[in-house]
Design brief:
The chain is 33% helix and 16% strand. Helix 1 packs across helix 2 and helix 3 packs antiparallel against helix 4. Strands 1-2-4-3-5-6-7-8 form an 8-stranded mixed beta sheet, sandwiched between helices. The chain is globular.
Length: 296
Amino acid sequence: MPKFTAPDGTRLAHHVRGEGAPLVVLPGGPMRASAYLGDLGGLTAHRRLVLLDLRGTGDSAPPADPGTYRCDRQVDDVEALRIRLGLDRIDLLAHSAGGSLALLYAARHPHRVSRLALITVNPWALGRPATAGERLAAARLRAHEPWFATAFPAFEAWLAGAAEPDWEAFAPFFHGRWDDAARAHEAATDEQTNAEAEERFLDPAAFDPPSLRTALARVTAPVLVLAGELDGGPRPALARVVADAFPNADFAVQPGAGHYPWLDDPEWFVRRVAAFLGARGLCPRQTGAPVRGSGG
């Protein structure tokens, strides 16, 4: 896989999948290796995915200074990748916690972003993470499912701060469909995540919500904020907070989807995201205005 050097000397890796114009992809977790993103439901048929392994995850080396796991300290890594790719501007897609990094990057380098797709992004960076009440409300939407009776008490315990949460029991709440693909996806979580770096990434000191809102209001690039109908972190109403931070944002809710919408309905996800990004092989500035709408 290709590697490059971050400004502090850390060797970072990115993985390339598909053909067409490049789309830089930032994983969530937080601090989960990019492998879990796969081909984003088949988005590789439309764009060449450039999936960054954040420092200390996947094939990227850990930094000499663990303090650089902090979200704002990794903005320079994204910029270094842009330079490594030789692109004046980048199309950028971020999932979940990776959205906080994308928001900070767009704020610091607004003229380097041509389009920005934010997928089920919990707005930590804007000072508004999902609350326990919001997550439980979303979970109750699944009360008719056969696994609910076992999963819901475990989910409540986790949100109440259980010392040893039963992740396996409540994993279904993060997926719109609890099928074999979802089970396989969850089984790989621990081995793909840098547990030491998780809390450092979301250090509150990394974020200044008022300043960030001011900066994002000056970002003119088209933005797509996509939420899952059944996701609890964020619920669609909370995801709209992210869209409202931009002057040129499109908001979409994927029906029946959880936190990983490309697994729940790959066809819907790819159709919506590809329409926003533009036709295969073309740079966004060649394809006209962004697709507008509230759903898909």
